[in-house]
Description:
The protein is an alpha+beta fold. Helices cover 32% and strands 38% of the residues. It has one domain: Alpha-Beta Plaits, CATH 3.30.70.120. The protein has 3 helices and 4 strands, in the order E-H-E-E-H-E-H. The protein has a 4-stranded antiparallel sheet. The longest helix is centred in the first third of the chain and has 13 residues, at 14-26. The mean pLDDT is 96.
Amino acid sequence: MSELIVGWTTVAQKKDAEKIATEIIKSKLAACVQFDGPIYSVYEWKGEIKNESEYRLTIKFPSSNVYKMENWIKKNHPYETPQWVVVDARSVSKDYLSWVNDVTCKS
């Protein structure tokens, strides 16, 4: 059984968050995608300080899909350089982890 991974990305529009969440679930790469916002991000981009509202997506998926998820984000994300931060879940209930593995593709 694969371990649980949690990944985060952001998008500018709610419709993009909904589309990405739906497509990831349809592709069976992740078991659950949650999004919240707007949140506010301050960052430097191409020499300028930006202050933008965004929607944050939290993506929960099995470790067996870590490279597939990264490639999917690179290919389908609307940003030129999307945020993609991934961490291993330190502690996950056995039932939840079983569900994640049951509803996603296996490598």
